[in-house]
Design brief:
The protein is α/β, with parallel strands linked by helices and 890 residues long. The protein folds into five domains: 305 residues, Glycosidases (TIM Barrel); 74 residues; 113 residues, Rossmann fold (3-Layer(aba) Sandwich), CATH 3.40.50; 80 residues, Immunoglobulin-like; 182 residues, Galactose-binding domain-like (Jelly Rolls, Sandwich). The protein contains 18 helices and 45 strands. Helix 1 packs antiparallel against helix 10. The longest helix has 36 residues. The chain is globular and about 105 Å long. About 4% of the residues have low confidence. InterPro entries: Galactose-bd-like_sf, Ulvan_degrading_GH.
């Protein structure tokens, strides 16, 4: 990375860095006319591409999703996107997870479930499954006690060829434990018309191949591969799928032993979770000769721990090789990259991403472990420079509540988590017959929107702010593609350890999500401690160690792991031998220096000098809200410093590198800004810090002179689109008189200025935002856990388009809510016109159409969705102009 690369990314960012949108095709029921209008609207707003997602119908009579009619429109959309310079992605299925009518019973997802039957003394024969059912008995064991007792000390029983089990005589009450495999019964969620059917077996190459050939073949038969940027797979939600017919053979081939007679250990309860794991199991097996020879007590516990680890490891490998690699191989054969959100169930590992072409995450929260970090870590280790995330999935639920500031705040958290490409969630197709021209609502209500937030299309009254928002995020995305990601710490994830928390429930209802298990296993506050100290990290697991070379100064943290595999211990010893540093946090028995969570930052600081960063008074409001993400280059380094909180934060940038000078740039304007000491970041604002050895290429802007504020005290008038101008006093809140109004209103006033007031720099300010009190923030966070919301009351609700003397000055939509007006002022009277736009939530709150639409769809297609959180549409709405409005001169 050189200085010219950074300047180019900020002043002329690449179109490939523009945020893109998931484009929901409901039905799919969309016309070429609607395609053209919506693509043009996206392009005009600065959106860089679309990802077509085929989801549930919203009116009767929708065509089947792979019909010639739909595929013809899909080709038209791909061609039109290419014509106007938009990227075009297609989901390789409908709804989620992959499946449909084409999935045969032998290719459907299967599960192993555990049934318990109490039996009295005496011998008997049990036949637990019907010969003609699609169920198979694969394990049987017996233990003393009744159904209220945990599964402990079970002894395996033999399964006869006719699927019967001979229960021996006994002295008292006993329980027979039966392991039965059957279809999960899961069907595709949110399926389009004609896409209903079972979810496929993600451990079977044959099942995956049948799906991609059926779906992908139909799509590529209509749309040339050269028009498709990628085929996409959404997050893995194949619930309870922990079996495939080939699992016994695959397990024995991969692990070197059979689980016959051992499988019941997966259902066992109890034992000491700090013992066992791969190391204790290996020791027990070495002593006993084979897993099946292990004895009672600790040896038996060790075998159970090893079996759990090996069972999950085998499922992970089958998912990687038989689903991800098969999808990627088929896509590659047809010239289209394969992109996946590779976390969830089946048990995807961090290292599983290496089987795909493009890596994508989901979830905001820069101080926690998110699936976004799961993806960015894999990308950084594998040398994949561009890593995307699904953004705005639940932003400010319900639909139409999200504001541009909400979108900015959440997007910044994704950037802090290591991604540099955003795919918004999303743009709901709404046909012209369902809505009016976008500014308001027709008799059909607000039209179509996704059941979950957000609805990020041009029906939102605040849409005039969208180009500015997209431009800012485009610049950040592009500058974060330059150079190399800088990570202070590698956080070692033990898959075998986290596997011990899986496969424990006796009814088979447990989840197989290694990401969630890893997140739960990390000590509380560990990630936040690192990030608040300006440190960053990547996850690594044992499948990635061959791609992470131990080196001098390297810092590795083992956290929340009681046991480690021999491969992990060997790698850690190499790190230490090469001059690296290993710290163990709440990981008894792990190698390295043991430290507590609250001592980790100091331990890292002692061995790894701090990089340049922002210094903030520790007791200042918002001191812990500043996050930083860095990229290193040969002659130039970049840091993006982001205020993620509701308070204005003064900071001093402390440069600790050998670089000769520092520049500060605004992602909002793409211009260099004064390097003030201290600098100031408004709520949810970002600044790009450039440290370089190269000679100065851009003139350093002069620092601002002392400001003089002139209050615009009025008189003010306001005019709604259905009324003439009338006098108004600021602050003015629409909900006081027009609670159901969504749209715009024009505020006007004038101000008289002297000759000496119009010569210099000037800006028109709407005033500061106000941070919420803690109790109000707590109340807002009762929304869905991933429903992001900015915690401020802005001086305008929500966007202001400002004109001075009839000339457009700019759009204010985020702190500091000011636009430059230099050159627009004149001596004498100056006319100020502020057009304010709110959200559609006011209309949504009183709109009966969504409930009627949901009922109509259910009568035709069954219950496929439920509009979520609509009862919160009117909570805490604040539309209007609140002020104080001032001219800031000088």
């Amino acid at each position: 990375m050189r200085l010219a690369d950074v300047h180019r990314a900020l002043t002329a960012p690449s179109d490939e860095a523009k945020p893109q949108m998931r484009w929901w095709w409901f039905g799919p029921d969309i016309s070429a006319v609607d395609v053209d209008r919506q693509l043009a609207a996206m392009q005009a707003a600065g959106i860089g591409g679309v990802e077509v997602a085929f989801v549930y119908p919203l009116r009767p009579g929708s065509p089947d999703w792979l019909s010639d009619e739909v595929l013809a429109v899909l080709r038209h959309a791909a061609e039109r996107a290419r014509e106007i310079g938009l990227r075009f992605h297609v989901t390789l299925g409908s709804g989620w997870s992959f499946g449909g009518t084409h999935v045969t019973p032998d290719n459907a997802a299967r599960q192993l479930v555990w049934e318990r039957r109490a039996v009295p003394p005496g011998s008997r024969i049990l036949r637990p499954v019907h010969p003609e059912s699609d169920e198979h008995l694969v394990a049987a064991a017996i233990y003393d006690g009744d159904l209220a007792d945990p599964v402990r000390g079970a002894a395996a029983l033999v399964i006869a060829a006719d699927q019967s089990v001979a229960v021996p005589d006994g002295r008292g009450p006993r329980v027979v434990l039966l392991g039965v495999t059957r279809p999960t019964g899961q069907v595709v969620k949110r399926a389009a018309a004609g896409a209903d059917g079972p979810v496929l077996d993600h451990y079977s190459a044959a099942a995956t191949r049948q799906h991609v050939e059926h779906v992908g073949g139909r799509i590529l038969g209509a749309v040339p591969a050269g028009l498709i940027e990628s085929f996409f797979c959404d997050s893995l939600e194949v619930y309870a799928a922990n079996w495939t017919d080939a699992l016994p053979e695959e397990f024995e081939r991969r692990r070197g032993y059979s689980f016959d007679g051992l499988l019941h250990h997966l259902a066992e309860s109890g034992g000491d979770p700090t013992r066992g794991g791969a190391e204790l199991a290996a020791a027990a097996v070495a002593a006993a000769g084979s897993p099946g020879d292990a004895g009672d007590g600790d040896d038996d516990t060790a075998v159970a721990h090893r079996l759990r680890a090996d069972f999950v490891r085998t499922l992970s490998e089958l998912y990687e090789e038989n689903f991800v690699a098969v999808c990627r191989g088929w896509c590659s054969d047809h010239g289209v990259p394969f992109r996946i959100q590779g976390y969830g169930e089946p048990p995807a590992r961090v290292g599983s991403y290496r089987f795909a072409d493009r890596y994508e995450g989901e979830g905001w929260g820069w101080k926690t472990l998110t699936a976004t970090r799961w993806a960015s870590s894999a990308a950084h280790v594998d040398g994949v420079n561009t890593v995307s995330c699904e953004a705005w999935t639940w932003t400010h639920s319900p639909s139409f509540r999200a504001t541009p500031l909400d979108l900015r705040g959440e997007a910044h958290e994704h950037f802090l988590s290591g991604v540099n490409e955003l795919l918004g969630h999303g743009w709901p197709h709404s046909p012209g017959s369902a809505t009016d021209d976008g500014a308001g609502a027709s008799d059909a209500g607000l039209g179509w929107f996704f059941y979950a937030a957000g609805a990020l299309d041009d029906r939102n009254p605040w849409w005039p702010a969208m180009p500015a928002l997209m431009g800012s995020l485009q610049r950040l995305g592009d500058v974060l593609r330059e150079g190399r990601p800088q990570r202070d710490v590698l956080l070692l994830v033990s898959n075998d350890e986290t596997a011990q928390t899986l496969q424990r429930a006796a009814d088979g209802s447990q989840h197989l999500d290694l990401y969630k298990a890893t997140r739960a296993a990390l000590p509380d506050g560990l990630v936040a401690a690192l990030r608040e100290a300006g440190r960053d990290f990547d996850l690594v697991d044992d499948t990635m160690l061959d791609r992470v070379t131990p080196s001098t100064g390297q810092v590795v943290v083992v956290a929340g792991s009681a046991t480690l595999s021999s491969a992990e211990r060997t790698w850690l010893s190499l790190v230490s031998a090469e001059g690296g540093h290993v710290f163990a946090v709440e990981s008894p028995g792990a190698p390295g220096t043991s430290v507590a969570v609250d001592g980790l930052v100091a331990a890292v600081d002692a061995v790894l000098p701090r990089r340049s960063g922002a210094a903030v008074a520790p007791d200042a409001p918002g001191a812990l809200d500043l996050g930083v993400v860095r990229r290193d280059g040969d002659t130039t380094d970049v840091a993006v410093l982001i205020n993620t909180g509701p308070h204005t934060v003064p900071f001093t940038w402390e440069s600790r590198t050998a670089r000769s000078r520092t520049e500060f740039w605004s992602p909002d304007t793409g211009a260099q800004v004064p390097a003030g000491a201290p600098g100031v970041l408004a709520p949810y604002e970002a600044v790009v810090v450039v440290e370089t050895d190269e000679p100065e290429g851009v003139t350093d802007p002069a620092p601002a002179s002392r400001l003089v504020e002139v209050a615009l005290e009025g008189p003010w008038t306001v005019a709604f689109d259905d009324a003439s101008p009338s006098p108004v006093t600021l602050p003015h809140r629409w909900e006081d008189t027009r609670p159901s109004y969504s749209g715009s209103a024009v505020y006007e006033t004038s101000v008289v200025l002297a000759d000496d007031q119009v010569a210099g720099a000037a800006s028109l300010s709407l005033g500061p935002s106000a941070a919420w009190a803690p109790e109000r923030r707590t109340e807002a966070e009762t929304l869905r856990s991933q429903s992001y919301r900015a915690h401020v009351d802005p001086p305008v609700g929500e966007v202001a388009v400002m004109h001075v003397n009839g000339v457009l000055a700019g759009v204010a939509w985020a702190p500091p809510y000011a636009v430059p007006v230099s050159g627009l002022l004149r001596a004498g009277s100056n006319e100020v016109r502020i057009e304010v736009f709110n959200t559609l939530a006011n209309r949504l709150a009183g709109d009966p159409a969504p409930a009627a639409l949901e009922a109509a769809v259910e009568s035709s297609y069954g219950r496929r969705f439920h509009f979520q959180d609509l009862e919160r549409a009117a909570v805490d709405l604040r539309s209007g102009l609140f002020g104080p409005v001032t001219l800031r001169l000088g």
